[in-house]
Write the structure tokens for this entry.
Amino acid sequence: MASPLLLHVRELGAGPPLVLLHGLFGMARNLGTIARAMAATHRVIALDLRNHGASPHGRPMDYPTMAADVIHTLEQLGIPQAAIMGHSMGGKLAMQIALTHPIAVSRVVISDIAPVRYPPRNSPILAAMRAINLHPDLTRAEADAALAAAQPDPATRAFLLQNLRLHDVESRGPVWRAGLAEIEASLPVIEGWEPPTNAPYFGPTLFIAGARSTFILPDHRETIRALFPTARFVTIKNAGHWVHADNPEGFNAVLQAFLDAPIKPA
């Protein structure tokens, strides 16, 4: 395994540590509504994962490697144990960490993802992003138009284009914040899932689904409970895959209640 990377951290609040892990093409700041709400009772550590945001780029980008990055960064922050919340790809990463480093995880929250392999869906979007001509006069409107065929939804395109820095000082022109080449090389692994051989995670576990999303299905519950025997399930109304953004009040209320609940002795 490659040496772990020290990840970029956005930190807020004080109290028991809560780690936030974003999804594919995201970054720590996307979880700002969660961070600000939870900072009233927790020390919130939102991370840019490798090849995202302000964190270093590197290969590979499988879940064991990303888990090592997170554990290494928390060690550098002097945090031996934390609650972890992950959305989408970050949810799979949170599962990986809980299963392989259970002592480091006091409780885990998985937002709208299951421990299963999903059909490929990101390759056309990634190809469209890489195909954009990063010429010096590129505008955000031009980049948005270039992505329209691969991603018709304007809100999702805006989410993707947060990764585009139009005026980078070093390159003297546009540059992608995200490591698109590194992500592309690992995309089948990111969209897949190889369950660790470690024992199940017996700590408190919550799976949150969006009512309009199909990422967590009833058929997934048996697989989930085999890995997380204590798992509870909550569905948030008026929300799709980006649960925390679609219904922040509902999401934060559920998360806060779970974090505040006492841990029952094993």
